[in-house]
C-alpha cells in the first residue's frame, strides 16, 4: 500500500511538472491565446498514452506499474479540473460558443487519442 502511494506521488509530480512545462512550451510557440490550447493538448496526449499503456501493460505483465503511470503520471499530466475551470471561464466571459467548442473538442479528441493509443499499441504488440 505505501509503495503504491509513493509511486502515485512520484508519478504525479512528474506528470504535473510535464503539464506545466507543456503550458510554457505552448505559450512560447503560439503566444498567449484566449483558447486553452495547452490543456487540450495534454488531455489528448495523456488519453493517447493511457490507451497505449493499458494495452502494453496487459501484454507485458506490467499492470503493477499502473499506480505510477496511470494514477500518478497521467493523472498529474492530464487535468479535467483545469478543463472545467477553462470551460466556466470562457462561459463567464460570454464566449458560450468557444466554451461549447472547447468541451466538444476536449471530449472527442481525448477519446480519439485513447482509441489511437489502444489501436497503435495493439497493432505493435499483437
Description:
The mean pLDDT is 95. The chain has 126 residues and is mainly α. The protein is globular. It is 86% helix and 0% strand. Helix 1 runs parallel beside helix 3 and helix 4 packs antiparallel against helix 5. The chain has five helices and no strands.
What's the short story on this structure?
By secondary structure, this protein is mainly alpha-helical.
Key descriptive features of the protein:
126 residues, mainly alpha, globular
| Bulk shape | globular
The end-to-end span amounts to 32 Å
The whole-number mean of residue pLDDT values reads 95
Strand content: under 5%
Percent of residues in helices: over 70%
Q: Give me the Rg, rounded.
A: 16 Å
Summarize the main sheet.
Answer: none
- DSSP strand tally: 0
Which sequence of SSEs, written as H and E, runs from N to C?
HHHHH
Oligomer: single chain
Blueprint (SSEs and pairs):
Elements: H1 2-30, H2 37-60, H3 66-77, H4 80-92, H5 96-125
